[in-house]
Each structure stands twice: as structure tokens, then as C-alpha cells.
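Archive entry: two folds, one per protein. Generate the first.
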Amino acid sequence: MPSPGVDDIRSELFPVKFTVEGGYKTQIDENSAMASRLSAALDAGWVAAIPSTPTTMTTAITTEFADISATGHGKGHGFLLAIGMGIDQEVTAWAGSWDTTTGKHKHKVESSKIHAAILKASPTQSNAVTALSNAVAAMFASNFSQEGEKPAD
């Protein structure tokens, strides 16, 4: 399925605002390196084109952030991979639910399920992790085109 594109992904996701421990409000800005790289990775991984094809978000994120894994940023890198795993898990469930009789998927991709899967896979929890995973899940679910569906009668 076609990606909304790097620029649209970035502008829909960012800024991500959250409160850090101690009560300080901060954000991940749309023009930050993190925003650019994560948006590029999500765009690259957004490849499901037919009802039986899942995304490859985990692979795309691994590739985009290979330098981070090589420098030992374990939990941060693990969280980035969790974003890919959460999306891949939900899209794989969707792809596997294709009903050849009805020409529809039984499973619907939902933001709340992606968000929960990301948090479950993440090796770390924080307000930033929660805010970014929620933003990614909402953006992906709202732009997920369930191609291959036959129009309702």
C-alpha cells in the first residue's frame, strides 16, 4: 500500500509533546534528526500492497537506525525497534485475516492495538515512549489503506 510520504508522516507525527519526570514539558520537534529519521524509516517500511502482504517496519527501522545499534544505545534502539514490531504485529494480523469468500479482512488495524504492541515490545517505559508510540500508532492507523477490500453492498 502506498505510504503517505516522508513529509506527511513527519508533519502528522511531530511535534510530540510530553512531560518528563520532574514535571518539565518538552517535545520532539518536527525538524529534529529523530523526526526526520523515524519518518524516513516509517515511509520505507510502509510496503503492504496486497491483502496477504505485511509491512516491514522492523526491518526499515533497523536499517535507518543501524548506527545507533552499533553504538550501544540499547534501550533507545530497542524502543525504536518496538515501534516497528508493534506495527508489523498488527498488520500481520490484518493480512492473515483475509477471507476469500467475502473478499474482506476480518481484522481491522487499530491504533490502540498498535500502541499496546509497541509498549509491550519496548524495553523501556517513559512519558516520551508513551507519547511517541501513541503518535506513531494513531498516524499509522489513520493512514492505513485497507486495499483489496471489496466495497460494501
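Generate the second and append.
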Amino acid sequence: MPMDVVRAAMEHAKTHDDVISIGGGEPLLHPHVWEIIGLALGSSEHVWLATNGLDAEKTIALANMAKRGILSVALSQDKWHPKVDERVLAAFQKIRAKNHHYPYEGNGPGDLRELRTVEHPVANGRASNWATKHECCCNNLFIKPDGSIRWCGCPDAPELGTVFNPNLDKYNEGEHDCWKIGPYPYVAEEAIA
């Protein structure tokens, strides 16, 4: 995603008080990933990032930030994702405590690290040709790398303009759910008319 699109997307999130989810592909491969994270943290109270953890140094740094509650970080570890360095796994481990008031020792209530496993991948992205679960991968506004805004993460979701020229009137009238299964799918259908 080009940085002008990233900046416009962050302005959109700031204006609409949205959660920012950074994923899709591997975000740590982006040459400006730290700038993107900084922009996201300045644009939303809640930033969530998913990584495969292959870049050990960046992933460990992110785990430390998540442990302190700065942003949420999910490490994807299952049969669909490659195995990672043991240091990365250790950075995401939460140690059981003897104190029942805090379920994890030293982590406290603000720890936003997550070990994520996928049992049934959604047929989208690199899994679109082989996954069997056909549902929405993101049931909120979805900004594609070209800057187009979609109702949700479904490949055939209606386009609602771009980050440079949004057309969100119909979206703002409906429920924020997948355009196919939400309580107001007719609103999304009208948005593409």
C-alpha cells in the first residue's frame, strides 16, 4: 500500500473513530511498517496488527508493545502459517500466575498479545482458491491497497469510493456488518447502484 493511501486511510479512521486493523499479507514486510504503526497509533485508540512472526526482531518488539497495552498484536501460529523462531513464541507466552486476580503473571489487564490459530481459513486472499469457509474476513469498512473503500472484506463487497473521495452515505445509514449477511444488505446493494 503506497504511503499516500496509508495516510489518507488513517485520516479516515481518525475522522470516523474506527479501529485500525493492519494485516492482509504480512504487514512487517512493508518498508515503512514502523511509520504506518505510528500513524495508526496517532489515528485510533485501538490498533490491531496480525503477523506471521517470521521477522523475529520486529515481532518481538511488537510483542513488547502489546504486553504494555500500546497496540494489539496477534501472532498467527497454526498449520496454515510457518513455524517461527522460539524467541518469538516466548515473547507471546503468558505465564500463569498463582494470584487469581491477574490470570497471567506480570501481564496485567492491559496485555494485548494474542496467539492466534485458524482452524478453518476464510476463502479470501492467498486462501481464496483452496479454503472452504466462505464468509467475510472483515465485517467493517475495508480499505484495499489501491485506496478503494469496500463495505467489508468480501471480494465482491460494494465499493464506497476511495480514501481520497469516499462515498459513505449509504454505509453510515446501515449496520456495520458484512454486506451479504448483515441486517441491512439492501442498503449495500443500493450503494453500488
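Annotation attached to the second fold: Confidence is low (pLDDT under 50) at residues 96-106, 183-193. Helices lie at 3-16, 33-43, 56-67, 86-92, 169-173, 185-191.
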